[in-house]
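Our consortium's second objective concerns turning raw sequence data into structural hypotheses that experimental partners can test. To show how far this objective has progressed, the report includes one record in full. It was chosen at random from the queue rather than selected for favorable results. The single chain below, 328 residues long, was entered without modification.
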Amino acid sequence: MTDDKPDTFRKAAERTAEDERAIQAGIDRQDAAVSNDDDGPKAMQAGAREYPVPDLPQQHLKKPGLEADLKLEPMYDAPFYRGSGKLEGCAALITGADSGIGRAVAVLYAREGCDVAIAYLNEDEDAQATKAAVEKEGRRAILLPGDVADPDYARHAVAKTLEAFGRLDVLVNNAAFQEHAGDLEQITDAHFDRTLKTNLYGYFYMARAAVPHMKPGGAILMTGSVVGLQGSGELLDYGMTKGGIHAFARSLSAQLIPKGIRVNVVAPGPVWTPLNPADRPDVSKFGSGVPMGRPAQPEEIAPAFVFLASPQMSSYITGEILPVIGGY
């Protein structure tokens, strides 16, 4: 008897991607280009290498957005980061791991000794690149295309992770849908539904599927956002979900203390990933408004996920929201 579930999930993921593009097209038709002549603050460079600053290449990606299509490649490989066995022998399931923050987290987890299940929608080219990057670090990786908003897919992804690696130590809920809207009335029912389904339902379904198979010492990480802390007039529905993720993580952390599973959130500010070029047609000044004057690169966010996943590093931390936002 053949297992036709993966084909079913792939077809469903394609339909979701089509829905996302339809939502994007509706907003694009209503969008008016807004010029921004403010150069903003001088960008701060405080890392191991120099990072790109605005002006960034103008580019509008079709959803869900391929990292392979970006003119300016996000910096995810963290060449100056040295692993030290912080996740040795562990296995992680990371949603949205094909690109952006998810890819950078997958690479550093592998560098710390962790096998990685790469969950993603339908961005096969990006996912293959992530898989190759994990394997380059000497760890195993599997690809799991599908829609996290489908509870059957969540159970499938967890089952395949256990089948491949024999364990599940870390769940990273990271997949997200974002499409701006300047007016409440611009947000259609389909738009609102897609944002909540991916960003809230997906996080809930993945956690519900994973927890029964996680042992004491395990960790659940969630990608929140500065928007969930401060709000955003143009990201009303997205901000709602990110605030919900923060509350979900704090509540779930309390529930899972008896099981010995920690739950925490990393809340980034602007990060150069396919998410924003797939949202707005003009990203040339993206990130210029934060005090550091530039967006983060994914490799600058990923170490926070290592810290909060590692039992050697953060065993007394649960229910926390760690902002990584480029200054106040």
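The partners drew two points from this record. The mean pLDDT is 91. The first helix runs from residue 5 to 30. Both points have been shared with the crystallography group to help prioritize constructs.
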